[in-house]
Amino acid sequence: MNVIQEAHYVYTNESEHADTAPVYAPLACCWILVVNTSRWLLVPGEPRRLRLEAINSTSVLVEWRPPAEAKKRGVIRGYRVVYGPTTNGSSPALEASSTTRTTAAHVLDVADPATWQAAVTGLLASTMYQFQVAAVGRKGVGERSRPRRVVTKGQGPCQLCTIRCYQDPDP
Q1: Model's pTM, two decimal places?
Q2: Cα 130 to Cα 20: distance, rounded to the nearest angstrom
Q3: Contact (CB, 8 A) for 76 and 134
């Protein structure tokens, strides 16, 4: 039998409900057994000490530490960085679910479990971004870290204007 995360299972007595639910272990004392397979018992806890540093106008360095030993819940296989721009100090895309869903957010997967940092590029200048990190284990993506925000650096003067150089034909 394959057990699916975030599902409820009901096992019933074969004689009364033979056409609606399979019987894997009939119980003599009871006729219904409900099992809840909560994913939070299986996936890693949240990474710790999330730190952000704006490198330039389009890049942010994201650093973190793995979940506490008691919250690793198995072997860490990598990390997922979830980020998106914020407006008025909030990020609807990230706050819609602080667990593993990434609707309208950007995702950067870090495949090496020994790597605790990532450079996120391609961002907009002078823009506030919100970041979260989740550990990935054998059973899936774990809890996200608490969100942190950072503003990318502004564009320098050379990026705002065009400088044209002409060579004087008569020296």
Answers
A1: 0.63
A2: 46
A3: no
